[in-house]
Each structure stands twice: as structure tokens, then as C-alpha cells.
Amino acid sequence: MQSRIGRPRKSRVSVIVMLVAALLGAAFLTVPAGAAGRGPAADPGGRHHRHGENLGGRSGVGKIDFGAWAKAQKSADRDRRAKGPSRQAAAGKPAARAALLAGPAAAAAGTSALVLYDTAGPYGQLGELYAMATANLAGHFGTVTAKPVQQYTAGMVNQYTATVYLGSTYYGGSVPDAVPPAFYQDVVTTTHPVTWVGDNIWSLANATGVTQFQNTYGWDPSTSYFDPGSVTQVTYRNQTLTRKIPAGQDGGVLRPTILTGPGYPAVTPLAQAVDTATGSSFPWAVRSGNLTYVGEIPFAFVSETDRVIAFEDLLFDALAPSTPERHRALLRLEDISPDSDPAELRATADYLYAQKIPYGINVIPVYTDPHGTYNNGRAETVTLIQRPQVVSALKYMLARGAVLMNHGYTHQYGTVANPYDGVSGDDFEFYRAHVDTADNVVYDGPVAEDSALWAQSRVTLSLAQFALAGLPTPKLWTTPHYAASATDYKVFARNYTARLERSLYFSGTLSGTAGDPNRFIGQFFPYVVKDVYGTTVLPENLGNYEPEAFNNHPARLPADLIASAKANLAVRDGFASFFYHPYNPVQPLQETVDGIRALGYTFVSPASLT
């Protein structure tokens, strides 16, 4: 059979990776089959590459019209402010102001987080998706409990190191308040850190007494409002982070009314929202006493330089405030298969060995081209044991700092275009997708035969190929094109120590119900987490080098990866993690490595994080 070695291949794999990265790069809510709209759940940051992963694309949740969501959000906010604040006396005991002003209690050993989320109203399904994203991040610090806010009972905040409430349902009008009075009262009396995100902070002030809230926290949510301007940047810890929301789908950022004058406690602005059109700015997040407030839920339309980075770092203040500054980098080489060029692999390995850079190698153990797309119309399938020169090159890499990782069984699905040509590395393996008429990759759902048994069979066959080739058993996994079902992810967790990737998180995971397989949020991380599937996930938050535009995603060059790494310096103990295809020249890899090192990052082995 004819090898493709020496024949340039379409730059499609990179694009898929870019796409997936985009989809995942932004925590995103996906669209159902046939849809192509994007929603406030963002775009998992990346793109599809010819050979690589990427959760890129558009997002949306179910059949939700996020333009209508934004319009409803703004309308509800206008109605609330038109009615004016409720200034009834607070029920129950007054807030322990002296204790609150002393600041949040430090996280103790056995760090735990309580994540509360909304489920009511026409957009109630957003709550669980955002809660999964928050729970995943909190999983970096310790144990996490996530539950609908209406299940809160008195005193619960004191059972956890810190609490995060995600206000994704705007209560008022036809949607009655589902937040228990006990939670309102506990927020202002506990000394444990509480982070309030998004809607309903005014309801907290009303429930506990607006005047009391003002005197305790130094600002007034009842007169604060969602700014109708165009916030396009957030500045945080000396970094300028991006905020790119499609026109008509922006619900805004709450502009807090901070009070000045004698008697009011100081309010600390933590990050600034910047309207670049007018040059104006206001606090994006504030803290006073035990309460941190973030003016929007930041999981919509995210990218590798997005303001979600600020939220990811703010969790340290509540859950691990004494964490020292540290910046590490991760590199993995992507889409290596029996069809790879051994000379390219050795050249890349020689450069990285000379630079003393450890790295992961993502290997697809079986390469197949069912229609001969890259083989003059002749179908071909090649295993590792049939390419001893490739196996020798892999062993050469392992002896020089590489860590073997498993990247699917064939990294494609049967003989169908999924979504391109059925060739290993180009197509999805565990998920169906197609390219629509606007050149967008659309996620269609799990493959028809998806089950724990089917997924395990792919894993078992894959591991057998490594054994036959005399290679070690991989302990790390990266899902082809970052897309699989919740069932599949649980299978991967039983077979591997960790995943290095961006991932999809499906509705029903927190509630334990049968969720919609086409309703999920995609996410990537700036640090190692234990996710809601119970799996350790190593970060990939920069995407990949991709010199060509594809599927409505622009090219991504070393300067772009370096800029993303710079933005992630805002995370006090975070990573700059990217992947690279060794069929590309070594020079762009060198430029990227040099740029990331110059920022102060130190490259570490993926194996050191498990």
C-alpha cells in the first residue's frame, strides 16, 4: 500500500482541532442538529485543524434564541429599576458587620465548595450547564457539591469553605423568586466567602434590607443596572482580557453603584469592564467583606484570552488564598499515527530534547483512509506494528522526554464523512458532525451505537495495538476532536489516569437525570481539575498552531498562542498549554516555545501532573 509520507496533506486536521478548541475554548452551549446559532454559552475556544482537536464552532442551548434571551434580560432589568428598590426591614438577625468587614475566612485543609444554581424560568436549563463549568473549576481546589438553589437549607454555607451562587434566571415578573430566604440571610451573616455571579444580587439587598446591605457592603445593588453599552474588554491583574459577544446577544454587565461617604465600608474593585467604544470603564467584579460579586456569568462566548480567565483566578481568593504565584507550560504533539513521517517525528524530538522540554505525544494506533482520499483512491488501513520505523521513532521520543498518550483508536468513524472524509485524524470518532452550507462544523450528537460497551471496545482495541507494537500502556487520553458522550467520558475515566483536553459536559449530569445529548457546555481549563465526571483533566487552554484559515476560523500563528499565554498570566497558578502537529516545520514550534518561556512559564511533563 502506498504511504502518504512526503505527500502534503490538506490542512484539515488542524482546522478540526481549531474548531474543537474554539468550541471548547469557549465554554459553550451547543446547538442541536441542524442549528448553527451561538448562545451565551460561548464557543469552546479553538478551531478544527486538519489533525487536531478543537471544540470550535458555534454554540447555543437547545432551541433557545439567545437574542431573545438578551432582550428579556434587558427588559426585566428596566422593569426592576423602574419599580425602585424595596426598602423593607431585613428579616431575622442583622448582619454581623464587624465580622464581615474582617474579610473572608481563609480556606482550611479539606477545601470544599458549594455551587448553587437556578433551574426556574424559560432559560432554566442554563443553570446546570453553568454550574458544571463552575464545579469543574472548583474541582481544582477540593471537593464540590452542586445543587439547585431552591434545595438550599439554613446554615449550609457554613459547612463549606466557600459558596458560589450562579444567578442565571432573572427573577421577577412572571418568574417568581426561587431563592430560599434562608440563603439570603446566611449570605450576610456567614464569615465564609460567598461569590455571587450574575442576576438577583438586588434581591439579596431587598431581602436583607437595602440600607443594611449598603452599610455592610458599601454598594447598592438596587440602583445598579446592566450596562447597555458594549463592554469588549476586562482588565484584571495587569492583563487585558477579551469579551466578544455577537451583536444582539449580550445581556450586559452589571454596573455597580458604589457608595462613598462616611460610614460606608470600602469596596474593592477586582476587575474593570471596559467599553472601548467610549473609553469608559466600571468594576466588572467587586469585593466587600465576605461577598464577592461578578457582574455577569462569564461562560458565554469565551476564547483563549477571554474574561473567564479573571473568574478562574478569583476562585483562588475564596478557596486557596495563600497560593503562591507559579506559571507552568504544557506541550503535546498531536495526531501521530502509523501514517506519520518518522523523520518529522525525530526532528521535532531532537529540537525539544535539546531545549530540555518534556512533552506528550498523542498517538492514534490505527490509521485508516477508507476511500483512499490521500492514497490515489485506494483504501488503506495501517497499524503501528506494520510501521516499525514509526514505532522506532516513538521509542526514540519516549527516551528523550516524551510521554505516550492515547488519542482514540482510529480517530474517525466507519466509512462516512464525519464531517469530512472518513480519514484518521480528520474526522470525529465518538461523535457525529457535519459541515453546513455556511461552512460551520455542526455537532449532531453521539454516534448511533454509542454505549459503555462500544466505547470500551474502542479503548481495548487501542491499548492492544500499543502492546503489540511493544510500546508502554498509555496512562493519558485525549478524546478525538474533543467530543464524546457523557457515557464515553466515564469509560475513559476507568481506563486512564487523566485526560489532557477540552471536554463536553452534558445536561443531566448534576441532576442524575437523562439529559438531552445535544445540550452541553464545552470547557477548557487553566489548571488541573477534577471534573463532574470524576476524572482528572489536564489543561489545554491555548489551542494549536494552524497556518491556514478553516471553517470560519482564522489562522492561528505563534504570536496568537503567545498572546493567549500572556493573558493566562492573570491566573496566579495557571498553565499555558498547547499542541502542535509534527508534520509542520519546527520553526513555528520554536517561536512559540521561545515566546512562552520569555513570559516566565516553565515547561513540565504531563505525567508530572497526575
Describe the structure.
By secondary structure, this protein is α/β, with parallel strands linked by helices. The protein is built from 14 helices and 28 strands. Strands 13, 14, 17, 20, 21, 24, 25, 26, 27 and 28 form a 10-stranded mixed sheet that branches. It has a 9-stranded mixed sheet with strand order 3-2-4-5-12-11-10-7-8, with helices on one face. The longest helix is centred in the N-terminal third of the chain and has 18 residues.
**End-to-end C-alpha gap:** 40 Å
Helix content: 25-40%
Radius of gyration: 24 Å
Return residue spans where pLDDT drops below 50 for at least 5 consecutive residues.
1-51, 55-63, 87-108
Q: Major sheet: size, sense and barrel closure?
A: 10 strands, mixed
Q: Give average pLDDT, whole number.
A: 88
Count every helix, treating DSSP H or I runs of 4 or more residues as helices: 14
Oligomer: single chain
Compute the number of strand runs: 28
Q: What proportion strand? A: 15-25%
Q: Would you tell me the structural class of the helices and strands? A: alpha/beta
* Global morphology: elongated
List keywords for this structure.
single chain; 610 residues; alpha/beta; nine-stranded mixed β-sheet; elongated; disordered N terminus
Topology:
Blueprint: H1 13-25, E1 28-29, H2 66-83, H3 97-101, E2 112-117, H4 125-138, E3 143-148, E4 162-167, H5 181-189, E5 194-198, H6 201-208, H7 210-217, E6 219-227, E7 233-236, E8 239-242, E9 253-258, E10 268-275, E11 280-288, E12 291-294, H8 308-319, E13 326-336, H9 342-354, E14 359-363, E15 366-369, E16 380-383, H10 388-398, E17 402-406, E18 431-435, E19 441-446, H11 452-468, E20 476-477, H12 486-495, E21 498-500, E22 503-506, E23 520-523, E24 529-530, E25 536-538, E26 543-544, H13 558-567, E27 573-580, H14 586-598, E28 602-603
Parallel strand pairs: 2-3, 2-4, 4-5, 5-12, 13-14, 13-27, 13-28, 14-17, 17-20, 20-21, 21-25, 26-27
Antiparallel strand pairs: 1-23, 6-9, 7-8, 7-10, 10-11, 11-12, 15-16, 18-19, 22-23, 24-25
Helix pairs in contact: 5-6, 6-7, 9-10, 11-12, 13-14
